[in-house]
């Protein structure tokens, strides 16, 4: 039996996609073998990856002049691949709003002069110290910077950027914006043209782990120096259609099915409606609990995808986790740096899952309040 899965990643996938994978697993569309067993250079898989790219371009409105790369290594590999490709002896600036952007900033320091454009890390330990976005005026980026890096949804702290142009209003227009969108890509319409490079590990909103999407503007390709390994060079990957070596074919195939599923939901605009309903219901339940539950994130940047919350009495945490699991609600334990609980309510988690969660939460509060 499938239960409601609130895992942060790898995360829940649309049930109909899993059913289709199951149905065509042994004999993929009459090929006589599974998609995993077909050459990545054959006509069958070439069709799969081309269709996935076409659907992604349509869903996100990716303009001409951007390449879509299907890579490996996770979002974490991009923490080094981005400076390796884009720094080219210049500096870069990082906006630090949570654990992931902090990690990206730290890794980039291995490759050159990078600066912290702004940090919202607070001295007090509330929610691991990250509960808000910086003011636009507080973001300092030199006009010679090769890029400015932001994480537009901090998965651990539940801090989301809803208006990148406003947040980055003081950044010189000549500086490209690089965004880690791992945990909210495809959750609502986003203007790709606001960014020089967008990247995302697949295992939150796209498909199975093992695939990493990079959407990169043409002028940012080809800046890597001669020491950069060929596999890590965006130019080489773009010239080889993401197939310099064997790509993660199964993950790309499932991602393609997820893209079709998103189209059937009315695209990212259709998903946004449901995602907002889900998040509003959950935050309302937290805010109306009379202090039993608490989410410390500022109202204008509360994530639609990752909702951390604490119980006023942490002694109840283990009972909450055990009983929620019994009620068919999986993986609600919060990240250790924040504590408490976290409900990840990605695209594939239906409204009914959040309804089940909030009725459990209300009941638990009644019994223990
Ligand atoms: C999960 C996550 C990562 C790390 O992804 P991997 O694919 O495991 O490397 C990086 N950034 C964000 C925002 C994430 O949510």
Automatic annotation (TrEMBL):
Q: Does the keyword Amino-acid biosynthesis apply?
A: yes
User: According to the record, how does the cofactor bind?
Assistant: Binds 1 pyridoxal phosphate per subunit.
Question: Reaction(s) catalyzed by this protein?
Answer: 4-(phosphooxy)-L-threonine + 2-oxoglutarate = (R)-3-hydroxy-2-oxo-4-phosphooxybutanoate + L-glutamate; O-phospho-L-serine + 2-oxoglutarate = 3-phosphooxypyruvate + L-glutamate
Tell me the route in metabolism or biology where this protein functions.
Answer: Cofactor biosynthesis; pyridoxine 5'-phosphate biosynthesis; pyridoxine 5'-phosphate from D-erythrose 4-phosphate: step 3/5; Amino-acid biosynthesis; L-serine biosynthesis; L-serine from 3-phospho-D-glycerate: step 2/3
UniProt: pyridoxal 5'-phosphate binding residues: 75-76, 100, 155, 180, 203, 245-246
Q: List every position bearing N6-(pyridoxal phosphate)lysine.
A: 204
Any idea where this protein resides?
Cytoplasm
* Gene Ontology BP terms: L-serine biosynthetic process; pyridoxine biosynthetic process
Q: Name one Pfam family in it.
A: Aminotran_5
Provide a GO CC annotation, any one: cytoplasm
- Name what cofactor the protein needs: pyridoxal 5'-phosphate
Q: Which domain of life is it from?
A: Bacteria
By sequence similarity, the record places it as follows: Belongs to the class-V pyridoxal-phosphate-dependent aminotransferase family. SerC subfamily.
Self-association and partners? Homodimer.
Q: Say what the protein does.
A: Catalyzes the reversible conversion of 3-phosphohydroxypyruvate to phosphoserine and of 3-hydroxy-2-oxo-4-phosphonooxybutanoate to phosphohydroxythreonine.
The name of this protein is Phosphoserine aminotransferase
């Amino acid at each position: 039996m499938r239960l409601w899965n609130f895992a942060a990643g790898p995360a829940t996938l649309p049930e109909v996609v899993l059913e289709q994978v199951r149905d065509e697993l042994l004999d993929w569309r009459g090929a006589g073998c599974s998609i995993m067993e077909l050459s990545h250079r054959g006509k069958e898989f070439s069709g799969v990856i081309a269709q996935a790219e076409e659907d992604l371009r349509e869903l996100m409105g990716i303009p001409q002049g951007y390449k879509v790369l299907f890579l490996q290594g996770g979002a974490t590999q991009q923490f080094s691949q981005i400076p390796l490709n884009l720094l080219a002896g210049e500096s870069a600036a990082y906006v630090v709003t949570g654990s992931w952007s902090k990690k990206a900033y730290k890794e980039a320091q291995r490759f050159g002069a990078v600066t912290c454009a702004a940090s919202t890390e607070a001295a007090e330990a509330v929610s691991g110290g990250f509960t808000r976005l910086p003011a636009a005026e507080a973001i300092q980026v030199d006009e010679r910077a090769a890029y400015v890096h932001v994480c537009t949804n901090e998965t651990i702290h539940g801090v989301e950027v809803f208006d990148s142009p406003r947040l980055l209003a003081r950044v010189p227009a000549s500086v490209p914006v690089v965004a880690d969108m791992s945990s909210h890509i495809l959750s609502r319409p986003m203007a790709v043209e606001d960014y020089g490079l967008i990247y995302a590990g697949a295992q939150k909103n796209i498909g199975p782990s093992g695939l990493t999407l990079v959407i990169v503007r043409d002028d940012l390709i080809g800046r890597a120096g001669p020491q950069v390994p060929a596999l890590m060079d965006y130019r080489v990957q773009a010239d080889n259609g993401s197939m310099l070596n064997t790509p993660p074919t199964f993950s790309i195939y499932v991602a393609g099915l997820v893209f079709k599923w998103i189209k059937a939901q009315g695209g990212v605009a259709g998903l946004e409606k449901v995602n907002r309903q889900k998040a509003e219901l959950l935050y309302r339940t937290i805010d109306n609990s009379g202090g039993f539950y608490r989410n410390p994130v500022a109202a204008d940047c509360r994530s639609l995808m990752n909702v951390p919350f604490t119980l006023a009495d942490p002694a109840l945490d283990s009972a909450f986790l055990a009983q929620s699991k019994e009620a068919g609600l999986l993986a609600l334990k919060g990240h250790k740096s924040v504590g408490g609980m976290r409900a990840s309510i990605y695209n594939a988690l239906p409204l009914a899952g959040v309804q089940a969660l909030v009725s459990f939460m209300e009941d638990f509060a009644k019994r223990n309040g």
